[in-house]
Amino acid sequence: MIWVTYLIKMCVAIADTPLVYGLVYLVRKNNLKIEEI
User: Fold this and answer.
1) Distance separating alpha carbons of residues 13 and 27, to the nearest angstrom
2) Domain count, the chain
3) Which mean pLDDT values do the consecutive 10-residue runs of the chain (37 residues) have?
4) For residues 27 and 12, what is the distance between their CA atoms, to the nearest angstrom?
5) What is d(CA 37, CA 35) in angstroms, rounded to the nearest whole number?
6) d(CA 28, CA 25)
7) CA-wise closest residue to 15 among 4, 2, 24
8) What pLDDT, on a 0 to 100 scale, did the predictor assign at position 9?
9) What gap in Å lies between CA 4 and CA 10, rounded to an integer?
10) pLDDT at 34
């Protein structure tokens, strides 16, 4: 179960990154382009 905690910490660290948050926003904004892939 240690790896679960590790993944959660990584997700939190990534979520706290402004650049990653911006990328997620762009991905959600351009759903049509993502669906084509």
Assistant:
1) 19
2) 1
3) 83 74 80 60
4) 19
5) 5
6) 5
7) 24
8) 84
9) 10
10) 55
Residue type, 20: V
Q: Range of 21's domain?
A: 2-36
CA atoms within 13 A on the CB side of 27: 9
Alpha-helical (H) ranges within the chain are: 2-15, 18-29, 31-36
C-alpha 30: how far from chain center: 15
Residue 12 contacts residue 6 (beta carbons within 8 Å): no
pLDDT value at residue 33: 63
| Cα angle value 21/26/29 (rounded, 5°) | 125
- Position 36 scores a pLDDT of 58
